[in-house]
């Protein structure tokens, strides 16, 4: 039986490993530009101009990386 692939975790982990800049769109319309440093089931830790911002995933609408991210499907 094939195990399910968690696309969200693969995507965030590749952003982190590649140290890619990403724009995070929040549900309230705000945009945050930074780099993913870490994440768990509920939060994403971004480095934004040398400062840390912990964002709850339930507040996030969209991630837009500075270039395409390769993940396994």
From TrEMBL:
Gene Ontology molecular function: RNA binding
GO biological process: regulation of DNA-templated transcription; regulation of RNA stability; regulation of translation, ncRNA-mediated
Highest taxon in the source lineage: Bacteria
Gene3D superfamilies (UniProt xref): 2.30.30.100
Annotated InterPro entries: Hfq (IPR005001), LSM_dom_sf (IPR010920), Sm (IPR047575)
Pfam families assigned: Hfq (PF17209)
Gene Ontology CC, one term: cytosol
Keywords: RNA-binding, Stress response
Sm domain boundaries: 9-69
HAMAP family linked: Hfq
Quaternary context: Homohexamer.
PANTHER family associated with the record: RNA-BINDING PROTEIN HFQ
Protein family (similarity comment): Belongs to the Hfq family.
Name recorded for this polypeptide: RNA-binding protein Hfq
Lineage: Bacteria, Bacillati, Bacillota, Bacilli, Bacillales
């Amino acid at each position: 039986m094939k195990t399910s692939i968690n696309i969200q975790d693969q995507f965030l982990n590749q952003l982190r490993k590649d140290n890619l800049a990403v724009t995070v769109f929040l549900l309230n319309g705000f945009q945050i530009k930074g780099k993913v440093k870490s994440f768990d089931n509920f939060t994403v830790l971004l480095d934004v101009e040398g400062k840390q911002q912990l964002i709850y995933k339930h507040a996030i609408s969209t991630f837009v990386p500075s270039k395409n991210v390769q993940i396994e499907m």
